Amino acid sequence: MKKVIIIGFLGVIAYYLLSAFASVPFGADLIKGVKDFYLDKSPNDLKVANVVTSIVVNFRGFDTLGEVTVLFLASTALGSILYRRRSHDSGLNPQRTAPEASALVQTGAKVIFPFTIMLGAYIFIHGHLTPGGGFQGGAIIATGFLLMLVSYRKFFIEHNALTWIEAIAGSTFVILGLLGLVYANNHNFLENFLPAGKLNDLLSGGIIGIIYVAVGFKVGAEITGILDTLLTVKETGLDPEEN
Amino acid sequence: MVISDPVYFIALPLLTAFLLPLFGKIYKPLIGIIPGLVFAFIAYISFDLYLNLVPGKPIVIQLAGWAPPWGINLVFSEFSGFVVTLITFLAFLVWVYSYNFKKVGFDNSKKYFTLLMLLVAGSIGVVLTGDIFNMFVFLEITAISSYGLTAFYKGRDSAEAAFKFLLIGSLSSTFILLAILLLYKQVGTLNMAEIAVKAQSIDPKMKSIIAILFMIGLGIEAEMFPMNGWVPDAYSQAPGPVAASFAGMLAKSGIYALVRVFYTVLEVDGIFDLLLIMGILTIIFAEFSAMRQTRLRRMLAYSSIGQMGLIMVAFSFNTKAGIFAGLFLMFNHAIIKSLLFLASGFLTYSTKQKKIRDLDGFGKIMPFTSLMFGLGAFAIVGLPPFSGFWGKLNMLVATADSNLYFVIALILLVAVVEVVYYFKVIGRLYFRQQHKEVEVHKPTWNAIAAMSVLAIVIIGVGIYPDLITDYLTKATNELFDKASYIHNVLPNLSLN
Amino acid sequence: MQEFLTYGIYGTAFFLMLLGLYAALVKKNLVKIVIGLSVLDSGLHLLFVAVGYISNGTAPIFSPAVVGKNVVMVDPVPQALVLTAIVIGFGVTAVALALVVRLYRKHNTTNIDEIKNLKW
Amino acid sequence: MNSLVLLLLIIAGGALLSYFGHRINQLLGNITVFIVALIIPIYWFTQVDFTETVSLTISGFHLEWGYNMYGKLFSMIVMILSPLALIYAIGYMKDQKKLATFYFSFLFSILGMTGILMSRDFVSLFIFWEIMTWSSYLLVIFFGKDVEKTGIKYMVFSALGAYAMLMAIVIINNNTGSMMLADYFTAFGGFSLQTKLLTGILLMFGFALKSAVMPLHVWAPGAYSNTPMAYTSVFSGALSKMGIYGLGFVVVNLFAHANMSIVGDVLAWLGAITAVLATFSAIFQDDAKKLLAYSSIAQLGYIVTGIGIGTELSVMAGLYLAILHAAFKGVLFMAVGAVERQAGSTDMTVVSGLVRKMPFTFFASLIAIIALAGIPPLGGFVAKWMLYESLITNGNFLMVIMIFLSSTAAFLYCYKFLFGLFLGQQEPEFDHVKEASPLMVVPMILLSLFLMVTGAYPGIVLKYIAAGMTNLGFHDVSWQMSVLTNTWGDSVNFQHIFLAVVVVFVAFLIFLTWRGYKHSTKVSTKDISVSGEMIKPEDNMTYSKDFYKPFERVLQPILKWKINKYYDEFGKGLEALFDFMRRIYTGNGQTYAVYVITFLVILLVFSKSIFGY
Questions:
Q1: Which end of chain A is more exposed for a tag (fewer CB within 10 A), N or C?
Q2: Distance of alpha carbon B31 from alpha carbon B113, whole angstroms
Q3: What is the pLDDT of residues D271-325, one digit of tens each?
Q4: D285 in the same domain as D340
Q5: Which residues of chain C are within 8 Å of residue D599 when distances are taken between CB atoms?
Q6: How many CB atoms lie within 10 A of CB B267?
Q7: What is the DSSP letter of B69?
Q8: List of chains touching B (3+ CB pairs within 8 A)
Q9: Residue B178: its pLDDT value, please?
């Protein structure tokens, strides 16, 4: 009964929303909005070939700062939600009880892992030139680590290192932004203060590339940390604080 | 302008949050001290900026060097500045209070302060931003940090509360995103001022659907009636200071967003009637539920919802008097509810059940905390000479000015219910014999300091409300004058 | 054709969204609810990208091949927005899963109907 | 500095000083209270400039304070009764706990009353009203018994009354654009009938509640008897008069002068019914506190009747009765408090024969009872006379009968009170009882002297009442120092009556004593003959038990009809409703999500009717 009602409700919602969207025909270029400005300024002023990147990192860089924060937040929140007094000090390392993967998988993982990392790095370094960017690259790097985590029971990630990477990458972003307050023409937060370079050059786009690299590192580290937390923490004994 | 720039409100907490783990590696106590310094600094700059604000000339900050319709901008106006100042002030007090609230260990307090800082930064971002999608991002930052903080304590039902919060919160973000998408496709821009200009040309049917989606999405954040099931759970399970910051920041940014969207960005006929009805329903259901609560924090949470309903009603009049009253109520709610939650943090510190009846005779054994709770209760039900009274009086005057006598009667009848449940608690605190063997946790000096400051504000504003009415009037004018907001954000735009 | 694409592509996105919503509203298993929310998000992201499409547009990248030529590019803004939205959705999902782990530890069940210690 | 502001500051400062004094130690606190109790009336009578006004603008509201003669009249009650009660309290509350809170609340309620009487605008009226309410609430639940029942009931009713007033205030503000009382009075004639009734009745509701008029009286018996007696004397004597003060200006100033006397008549009827029912209830109380509480309600009923009729004479009678009531109820509550403190109980079936042990208390109570019952030489008689006369001239004969009935019935409880506590045989268990401390006795004696003086010279009080009534629109009210004249031309000189009665009384007393000593035999109270029935030790065979049993049997049907029960049922019903409503928060997160979707669907479906598209 409940299901029927809910399906009915969903039907009503679908009807109204679809009828709303139907007035925005697919593929129609209806609006004269900010996008034309972006399409114009990105290659000409910023010298960034990938307009999405220039929007993400420059025009709407503040959003991206928020985005990075969300990821950071998620990993912190995850840590705080799943935190338990792990016996770091007593020398006992956390354990994963998942069975060891077969040798085939292990070897394959070992072979693929460096290439995955490299691909990820390539993607975020070329974020302003080709599709992709810091987030995508970071995610790919994290999948490399996920592969290793799944394949090897004894593959442990050094959380200290992750913390350092996260902290440095994150603060690079903010500090680059703050430097804009001092050095850039309009003294704006996150404003580009480096020479823009030449379109379709690796070293173009001013701070955009640098920020994307930082984002890549940060995202990679954070997603890896999240995966590690979710995978590892489960198997330790019950915390005395609980229940 | 380099020192007092609104961008610091967001950049500094974020930077500190990113770097906090490193500080912890240098010297452990730094993880508690550094956030305090940051909060103190942003509180200072918010007061500095707000007090030096030239009327009619909000500080509009463009980010990344692009002027408003293209880049994201921050608007520190009389209205948003007021809310930001309130938030930073409370953030600092919450930090003072929670500096050694419960000894939760190094790793946990690192996470606690990180999450708290991001909650503050998120709420400020929601209030300051002039870009609708950016607002969504900050709403999400606020929401995710709230999930984390709600589930902070283990051993309670905090995870359950957080999950409900998350479930509803995701729906909220979905609907906000849908609304933003529809809006973008109609006007081609995300800047709130430019949307406000172009919104007139949107097809009214489309506009009403966008308004509905915003109403749902932002209503969830603002604790509107059928969508506030998460509130009592989250408030009651979160740590005491966090519940205070929920009331002071999360709810405030939610209602700010709601008000900003419907007053400035999107003008829809009939939305205010809807807001009025939903506000009244919110009040009724919340206060009635609060009446029958047996747990202190849950009671406070329901009461908080009721207050939010009252604020919605005040804003729904769409008159200057209504906005003024709404702002006054926002101020009161932030200050008084924070005090109540902070006091209840120590009242229910050790009892596991957090029941009201466990509090018999606490007035004797925890005199200061009980006094603060009593003061807060007196203030929140609107007894003079505390600040709650002026808010309520202004609210009722505004209601009468809108000729809604029926609403006055309703609000006042519900207020009687409010009186009953608060005075039940006071009666138990002060006029009952205490149970044997109660475990008492005396408030620490910093908690006493934080609560005292709030109490002083309550009494000060109660005796002399003109301390803030000037600022409230200015904020009212700013919110009511949509044209000047647009003009200030987009100076080069010719209005037609 | 236009009509078909409008309803077809938007419809797919909406179908995904409603599917996710249905799971979130009806399924009792916490994990399924989280999956539902995820699917809901995906549908929304698809909708974003679909709305940003402009007929015969290319990706908004000024690679050497298109520089100087008069090409139509799709609207880059929704793509930028969807990037943000995806990341946020990811964060929320991660937190949700962590909460599910916590709830399972405490209640030994993932049935949402049995997890209501906090009520009224 | 402005003397009015200074007055308020003195009271508030006194409250804080007493609070901190008592936090340090009791002696210091008591000395502070004593000094404060002296300073307040002295300052008020000598230093306050009644022509001064204070005006200030707070939060956009214009506040104005200043006395008029009407307010001054009521202030006199407050300023005489409250300090005496404070001094009494020092003795009464000796060695109790939480004295700091007690005196703080006590003085704050005085502050509230003082403020009410000098408010010229509704906002400050309401502020002081609320201060008075919450401070008295703290005192009602002071001893911690019946916190839930009595305290909450008091708070609920007070809140209802206060909020009714608040609603009226904001509606007035909406209609006149001003919060000033005077503006309301002048604009009242121009209101629509609806607004007239709405504002007037809401205001009346608030005021009538504080003066415990019939359907709104249920809080009073519990609150009056639960409060420390030192405060009850003020509570019943002065605080309830704030309601009368308000009713006075609403009914008389607005309705009586606006040809809407029907409203006043309804109020008068309610007052009369209150008087009758409360008197009957008082008769069957065994606890002296409860008896006095009901008696207070009944007396307030007379006053309300007088005010409600709204003619010159009736208002004068009402106001005069109000002042007397303050004095005699002040004495009686203090006396009961003294008995409570000295003998440990106020149950009239337990305590008896204290006349020899507490002669001064008895004397004061006797005088007060005489005044209360309206027996000729004292003021109560004059007041009731005036009330009857005004009712008769007004043609309200049925009301006269009711008031007369209740006055006669009042003799029963008066007698029961005196007899139960003071007369009759003294049980050995009360041998140790001593007269209360001078701090408690002196205020009682002073008040009873005041009653005697006003009995001989009613004009002392009538002078102020006549002055006060000019503010109610009655100019040139005639009064005489000690001669009562009526409209039919008869006149009586009170001094002669007073003297005659006193002489006869004293002579009779001497005669009785002389005879009594000669012919009395000593028997124990337990020496009771029963016809074949066994008396168990736990049976209370005191003569005060079932004092009016036969009478009670007659009145059973009336007494069974307890309005309290309906309120309780209503409250329970509401609680059940609330419990039902909060079930909407089922605790299941998914259900909450379904609510969201449902809400969305409702909005989408009805978007046409909400937004018009």
A1: N
A2: 7
A3: 998 898 888 888 888 888 888 999 999 999 999 998 888 888 888 889 989 999 9
A4: yes
A5: none
A6: 14
A7: T
A8: A, C, D
A9: 92
**pLDDT tens-digit map of A168-178:** 998 888 888 88
D392/D399 Cα distance (integer angstroms):
9
Assess whether pLDDT exceeds 60 at residue B353.
Answer: no
pTM: 0.92
3-state helix, strand, coil in chain D (%, to 5): 75, 5, 25
pLDDT by residue (tens digit) across B240-282? Answer: 889 999 998 999 999 999 999 999 888 888 889 999 999 999 9
Q: How far is B327 from chain D (nearest CA, A)?
A: 13
Yes or no: say if B273 and B254 are a contact pair by the CB < 8 Å rule.
no
The first and second tokens of residue B214, run together, are 């915003």
Nearest to C120 among D582, D590, D594 (CB): D582
Decide if B181 touches C, using CB distance below 8 A: yes
Helix (H, G, I), strand (E, B) or coil at D494: helix
CB contact under 8 Å between B163 and C100, yes or no, is yes
Q: Where are the domains of chain B?
A: 281-478
How far, in Å, CA of D144 to CA of B15, rounded? 54
Say if C65 is an interface residue toward chain A (CB within 8 Å).
Answer: no
Task: Confirm if A71 and A225 have CB atoms less than 8 A apart.
Answer: no
Ramachandran region of residue A183, left (φ > 0), alpha (ψ -120 to 50) or beta? Answer: alpha
Single-letter amino acid, residue A243: N
Indicate the number of domains in chain D. Answer: 3
b/e per residue D310-328 (b: at least 16 CB within 10 A) = bbbbbbbbbbbbbbbbbbb
Looking up tokens 């912890």 gives B24
Structure tokens, B309: 């309903």
Show which residues on chain A lie within 8 Å of chain D, measured between beta carbons: 6, 9-10, 12-13, 16
The torsion defined by the Cα of B182, B187, B191 and B195, in degrees rounded to 10, comes to -100
List, in sequence order, every residue forming a beta bridge with D384; answer none if it has no partner.
Answer: none
Largest Cα–Cα distance of chain C, in whole Å?
65
The CA distance from D233 to the nearest CA of chain A, in Å, is 55
The verdict on residue D74 lying in a domain is no
Q: How many residues does chain B have?
A: 496
Alpha-carbon distance of A204 to A127, in angstroms, equals 11
Secondary structure of D425-440 in HEC code, one letter for each residue = CCCHHHCCCCCCCHHH
Q: Which residues of B touch C37 (CB under 8 A)?
A: 167, 170
Instruction: Answer whether CATH 3.20.20.70 is correct for domain C2-61+69-114.
Output: no
Indicate if the alpha-carbon torsion angle C55, C59, C62, C63 is positive or negative: negative
The range of the structural domain enclosing residue D574 comes to 548-582
Residues D384 and D277 in one domain: yes
3-class secondary-structure state, position C58: strand
Helical segments of D53-119, H only: 69-92, 99-118
> Which amino acid is residue A239, in one-letter code?
D
Residue A221, both tokens: 């580290």
Query: Which residue's entry shows tokens 């003060």?
Result: D245
D112-144: per-residue pLDDT in tens? 999 999 999 999 999 999 999 989 988 888 887
Task: Tell the residue number behind the tokens 């009637």, with chain if given.
Answer: B273
Query: With contacts defined as CB-CB under 8 Å, which chain A residues touch D597?
Result: 6, 9-10, 13
Same domain, D311 and D372: yes
Could you say which of D582, D583, D588 has the minimum Cβ distance to residue C113?
D588
Residues D306 and D337 in one domain: yes
Peptide bond into B385 cis (omega under 30): yes
3-state secondary structure of A203: coil
* Domain end marker among D471, D499, D516: D516
Same domain membership, residue D448 and residue D408: yes
Residue B171 to residue D593, Cβ atoms within 8 A: yes
- Percentage helix, strand, coil, to 5, in chain C? 70, 5, 25
